[in-house]
Amino acid sequence: MATLTVVSIALTGGEPAFVAATGAGDEFANTSGRTMLHVKNADSSEHTVTVACQKACSYGFMHDAVVAVPAGEERIIGPFSTYRFNDSGNKVQVTYDAVTNVTVCAYDLAS
Questions:
Q1: Could you read off the pLDDT of 6-32 as tens digits, one per residue?
Q2: Distance (Å, rounded) from C-alpha 85 to C-alpha 41?
Q3: Residues 39, 69: contact at Cβ < 8 Å?
Q4: How far apart are CA 101 and CA 111, in angstroms?
Q5: Radius of gyration for the chain, computed over Cα atoms and rounded to the nearest angstrom
Q6: Quick one: three-class SS letters along the chain?
Q7: Fewer Cβ atoms within 10 Å of its own Cβ: the N or the C terminal residue of the chain?
Q8: pTM: predicted TM-score of the whole model, two decimal places
Q9: Neighbours of 2 (CB within 10 A)
Q10: Which residues contact 97 (CB under 8 A, 6 or more apart)?
Q11: How far apart are CA 88 and CA 6, in angstroms?
């Protein structure tokens, strides 16, 4: 599992740092609860991104956030509640059904 560098986005801007998605999954820090994941799928097939929940949602259910990213498209996923998605190290865990031609970048919206 690789650790993504989180890019801070502020009024003055922020430069995306896309990297290849890792077959074993990725993780990123989520200290603010305003962190999001940008996924680009340049493959000819749809890919599924799964963000692991760590605690039950407000309705009492444990369910991951699962997002389909169609071929040739991109999705911005989040923000991620620190309560529901952070592991014990304050990181969010992400896996992919496949990583061929998939790049990702984590963003944090500065206050």
A1: 999 988 888 899 999 999 999 999 999
A2: 23
A3: yes
A4: 33
A5: 13
A6: CEECCEEEEECCECCCCCEECCCCCEEEECCCCCEEEEEEECCCCCEEEEECCCCCCCCCCCCCEEEEECCCCEEEECCCCHHHHCCCCCEEEEEECCCCCEEEEEEEECC
A7: C
A8: 0.93
A9: 15
A10: 47, 48, 50
A11: 18
Q: Which amino acid is residue 40, in one-letter code?
A: K
Distance of CA 65 to the CA centre of its chain: 10
Task: Find the length of the chain.
Answer: 111
Residue pLDDT, tens place only, 41-70: 999 999 999 999 999 888 888 899 999 999
